[in-house]
Amino acid sequence: MKFTVDREALADAVAWTARSLPARPTAPVLAGLLLEVEASTLKISGFDLEVSTQISIDAAVEQAGKVLVSGRLLADISRALPNMPVTIATDGQKVNLECGTSRFTLLTLSVEDYPKLPDMPQIGGLVDGTLFTTAVAQVAIASGRDETLPALTGIRIEIEGNTLTLAATDRYRLAVREITWDSKVSNVSATALVLGRTLNETAKALTTAQNIELAFSVRDGAVESLVGFSGAGRTTTTRLIDGEFPKYRSLFPETSSTTALIEKSVLLEAVKRVSLVAERNTPIRLAFTSDGLSLEAGTGDEAQASEAIEAQVSGDDVLIAFNPQYLIDGLNAVVGDFVSMAFVSSSKPAVLTGALDAATAADQSYRYLLMPVRISG
Description:
By secondary structure, the chain is of the alpha+beta class. It has helices at 7-18, 71-80, 129-140, 196-205, 264-274, 324-333, and strands spanning 2-5, 32-38, 41-47, 51-58, 60-63, 65-70, 86-91, 94-99, 102-109, 123-128, 154-160, 163-169, 173-180, 182-183, 189-195, 211-219, 222-231, 234-239, 258-263, 284-289, 292-297, 305-309, 312-315, 318-322, 338-343, 350-355, 363-370.
């Protein structure tokens, strides 16, 4: 095997495929990247038995073939190379890499022991790349990190006709986003639970794709085994989480006793300033009245901070407390210059939605539900 490839294209492709390689592989070959060349194409693949990644780039091929090498080492080397063409060739059980005056020799892993990548399921439809990336990022902030609760580490994908609904929760907040897509399957209705971290990284990697192909197979209203994503010459599959996602829709209140419309950037900066005195896991308090919004943090002998900002408040006065970082995450996620906050009471979750301006109705396609923190005393 021998081929020459653009250094920047190689570094980008290797970095993307290597991102899902396990830090502690259960078998040595799972730490490798499979390089396959034929005609004028280099195909790079990675697979950890859960997530597969594959990308194809142009290459000047002198001799076709395939080889398995350490993925993280190849990623480190290709990133550090000078901006010159890279030639890679096999030499027995070794691989020689040349770029300008730089020379590297890598050991190979057993191609025969490398597992076969899963096939892509049938194509289910197309979704706008930028829209999908934004939607995933908006809900990924609420996916859990506690691996003892695997269902909460996932993002639930609900497929209903031409509507995709993404939802994630860690029990303290819930993020839901609805988007439209071009379904190739008529009257499809199914659900899938994908690891939040994996879906977020996949969506980011496919940002440049004008359209992303979402591929799945459905049986009895559920997506079978795995789901695939493809776009911009990149393909990835991931196995689904086996778990029951909470019935989240009932958590959103049907009515509210208080609503507040606030300029998002003003509120965001105020929360950041006031929370500077808040110790770890200490909430900030927000008082909504007809006069506007007051923010406070710290009590007694602790450092304290307060700030008042303008807000259009309708309904009953509300004094409520939130984890400041969770509030900041929600404010960053809603789209528009203004944020609408709806409350039932100080002990019930608040719902955040975005509005383009003060005169425009809030956009209900993205909702961020935030649990309050009990105010001591």
